[in-house]
Amino acid sequence: MTTNEIIIVTTAFVTYVFGILAKRFNWLESNYIPVQNLLIGIIAGLLVYYGGLNTSLISSVIVCCAAALTAGGAYDLGKVGKDDK
Hints:
The chain is an all-alpha fold and 85 residues long. The chain has helices spanning 3-25, 33-50, 57-79. α1 runs antiparallel to α2 (33-50), α1 (3-25) crosses α3 (57-79) and α2 runs antiparallel to α3 (57-79). The longest helix has 23 residues, at 3-25. The N and C termini lie far apart (40 Å).
């Protein structure tokens, strides 16, 4: 695995866990969870950039935001077709 793949998987996993926790403990309304995911992506992008990996700031933030928003979408996609019982 390359460093970029590790960063993407880690960002997606952290976002997925925070999404589950936000819905379980209701610390955010469901409408604000994508904003939470975007903030996680931005923070991860900044950590990647300032962590010394040879990448540009814009590139690292975009990749991490994409991973974070994709994880949130994957969580919601898993809920499609299930009954709310």
